[in-house]
Design a protein that fits this description.
The protein is an all-alpha fold. The protein is about 70% helix and about 0% strand. The chain is built from 9 helices and no strands.
C-alpha cells in the first residue's frame, strides 16, 4: 500500500502505539507518517502551502541524515547522536534536530486543528484558531497575514474531513478527529521532552 493511499488516522495511531510500546519514536514510521500527512494536506490545495512547503524541505533533510546513519533506528537515537557529536546546534540549517523541531511544530498545528474541528462548525475558524495558537508564534507579521488570507479560502468542513480520510458511512466524526489528536499529542510531547532534555529547544 502506498503512502498516499493510507488514511492519516491509521498512520498516526500506529506511530503513537509504537511510541507507547517501546518508549521511542521509530524513524521509518515517523517519515512514513509525514509523507501521508503531506499528501493529505496537499489534497486540500494551496491553502496549506505554508505547512507543506516547510515540511517537505525538513523531511528531506531528516531522510538525508537517516540514510547516512542507517544504524540509528529511532529519532531518539538520532537526536542523541547529534548532541553527542556537537551537530545539533550547527549554524547551518541542515541539522536533523532542527528539522525535527520544525516538523514537530507542524504536528502540533495539525493536532490543534483536529481539536478545533471538534469545537467549531467552520473549518476556516478551526484552522485560524489552530494556527494562532501554534505556528503563528514562529512567524513574522507578514507571514501571519498571508497565512490568514490563505486559511480564509479553506473549503467546507465536509471537504476537509473527506480529505483527512473521514468516511461518514462508517466513522463517527468526533471520534475520528479525537483519534488523530490523541495520537499526535504524545508524539509531540515526546519530541519536546527530548529537546528539553538536551537543551536544544531554541535551535535557530
Amino acid at each position: 500500500m502506498s503512502a498516499d493511499s493510507r488514511c492519516m488516522r491509521v498512520v498516526v495511531v500506529e506511530l503513537s502505539c509504537h511510541l507507547e510500546n517501546v518508549k521511542a519514536l521509530s524513524a521509518p514510521d515517523y517519515v512514513q507518517t509525514f509523507k501521508v500527512i503531506t499528501s493529505t494536506l496537499r489534497e486540500l490545495g494551496l491553502v496549506f502551502g505554508f505547512v507543506t512547503k516547510d515540511v517537505e524541505g525538513k523531511l528531506s533533510i531528516l531522510e538525508s541524515h537517516l540514510d547516512k546513519r542507517r544504524d540509528l533506528e529511532t529519532l531518539d537515537a538520532l537526536i542523541k547522536f547529534e548532541v553527542d557529536n556537537d551537530c545539533a546546534r550547527t549554524k547551518k540549517k541542515d541539522s536533523a534536530s532542527r528539522a525535527l523541531q520544525r516538523l514537530n511544530r507542524a504536528l502540533e498545528f495539525i493536532a490543534e486543528f483536529m481539536k478545533e474541528l471538534t469545537q467549531n462548525a467552520s473549518a476556516v475558524s478551526a484552522g485560524q484558531k489552530a494556527y494562532k495558537s501554534t505556528l503563528a508564534k514562529y512567524h513574522n507579521w507578514l507571514i501571519q497575514k498571508s497565512v490568514g488570507v490563505a486559511l480564509n479560502t479553506l473549503g467546507s468542513r465536509e471537504f476537509v474531513l473527506e480529505k483527512f480520510g473521514f468516511d461518514k458511512t462508517a466513522d463517527d466524526e468526533i471520534e475520528f478527529l479525537n483519534d488523530i489528536e490523541t495520537a499526535l499529542k504524545p508524539v509531540c510531547f515526546h519530541l519536546n521532552g527530548m529537546f528539553s532534555q538536551f537543551d536544544i529547544m531554541d535551535l535557530p
